[in-house]
Amino acid sequence: MTRMSEWKSGRRGGLPAALALAALLAVGFGLVGAPSAAAAEADALPGSYQLPLHAAAASAKGGTPVATGDSAPAATKDGAPAAKGDGSASATAKSGVPTAKRDGSASAAGKEPRAIKPAHPASFAITGMKYLQGRSLAAGEFTFRLGVAGVASIPPQSDLPKKLRQGSSLSAAEKYELVTEADLTYYPSATQPAPSDITVENAADGTVAFEPLVFDATSVGETATQRHQGAIFCYTIAELPPRNADGTLKDGVTRDALGRYVYRGVTYDNSVKRVYLYAYETGDDSSNPEIAVVPLGDAAFAGAPLKSAVGSGMGFVNTFNGAVLDSYRGAVSLDGDAIASGEFNFAVREVGEDGKLIDEHEVSCEASKGGHAAPIQLIADATYDEPGRFFYAVSQIESARSVASRVTLDESSYVITVEVRKGDDDRLDAAVTYVRKKPADSDQWVDVDLDAKPSPVVWENTSKA
User: Domain range spanning residue 147?
Assistant: First the structure.
């Protein structure tokens, strides 16, 4: 994962073309040695490029540059070859015994190379929360996409790794600020970990979780120096607008004045979460190296609405601007006898003003003790995203109890009218305004008192003689 730091125009300081090319080759490929003058000039150009650690070095005594790259090794006082800049085997000045290469290859004829254990990989799962204000959240209601935004290498002389590593005295917010203010460039990389599925849906409790990302030595760096410095991996997370299977927006999707998507009364969060994961190799050649991952930014975007979060970490927040009818209950009785939960069933059909069927389903009664009617949840968490009238036709249907126990069912039918109105504050409000009943022995519909107890909608079943 060798990367050249960002080359900035206007900051080259008049570096001659030939010298710039030589330095560039030393950085990107390590093919040629860079003159010490180039090293000094590169140090004066932060963010332009960095020379390898072995690119230019002087001997401890005389300041004579040591050959680097593929150049021939310089001779010591006794004529023994000095170590090459790439760490390959060479003789020492006194004994002539070859030294070991850093990469663990053979250091002398007849000796086994020292094995370096590969770093143990680490995994990290990006997770967060989805919040919906104004009504209940359903599982799978919203979809989120993880974007792979690139990798930034850290220059060898930078002190950023020391500040970001585990055990640093800096807080997560301070580390996040350092990364955002650092002069880093993020490049696409084939070794950047990514999940097999980059889109996920929210769970019933609002959890948004992507599959874990696995970081190994290959993804962190090609050389030991790069792996020790580490790299910063950037990801983005965004909520997707409602779309059809072919990718087109669903009918009814609009945008508000701020450009946010609005669908069925829900205004979508258009924020983009930015995740930074600093990964590096711990230990050295003599220990058991491991890959460590430090999460920064929105790596855990779980902050709830109206709760403070420093710099990052807020969850996705959508707002339902419509109306909600939490509950409307009916009741059923059986000659004053106790009723078990689910003994009697009822059909509910929701119809709009235009006569189109909106929804239909069945509900069952709850349990009751003797002498009391059993409650029935006829309407629950109904949502409305526009003004109008909505009608609920309800009737009793056959159940196991009615057949086995020879019960005569009350065949009365009811229509419950819900009106949705917009108030002075432009907010919608929903309320039951009418209940009409057609008794089993009549073809006429009659209005029912909305204050009737236990409910305006009651079925009175009887036991057969």
Answer: 122-320
Q: Are residues 293 and 385 in the same domain?
A: no
- CB 239 within 8 Å of CB 143: yes
d(CA 146, CA 299): 11
Query: pLDDT tens across 14-43, in order?
Result: 444 443 434 433 434 333 333 333 333 333
Tell me the C-alpha distance between 57 and 71, whole Å. 14
Domain shared by 203 and 347, yes or no: no
Phi-psi domain of 198 (left: phi exceeds 0; alpha: psi -120 through 50; beta: other): alpha
Cβ neighbours of residue 186 closer than 8 Å, sequence gap 6 or more: 149, 150, 151, 152, 232, 234
97 inside domain: no
- Can you tell me the distance from the alpha carbon of 145 to that of 147, in angstroms, rounded to the nearest whole number? 6
Token duo for residue 137: 């959240």
Nearest to 457 by CA among 406, 417, 408: 417
Looking at every residue in the chain, the average pLDDT score rounds to: 78
| Chain segment 344-357, per-residue pLDDT in tens | 999 999 999 999 99
Q: Do 198 and 254 belong together in one domain?
A: yes
Looking at 44-58, 111-125, 171-185, 193-207, which range is the least confident one? Answer: 44-58
- Alpha-carbon gap, residue 279 to 178, rounded angstroms: 15
Residues 299 and 403 in one domain: no
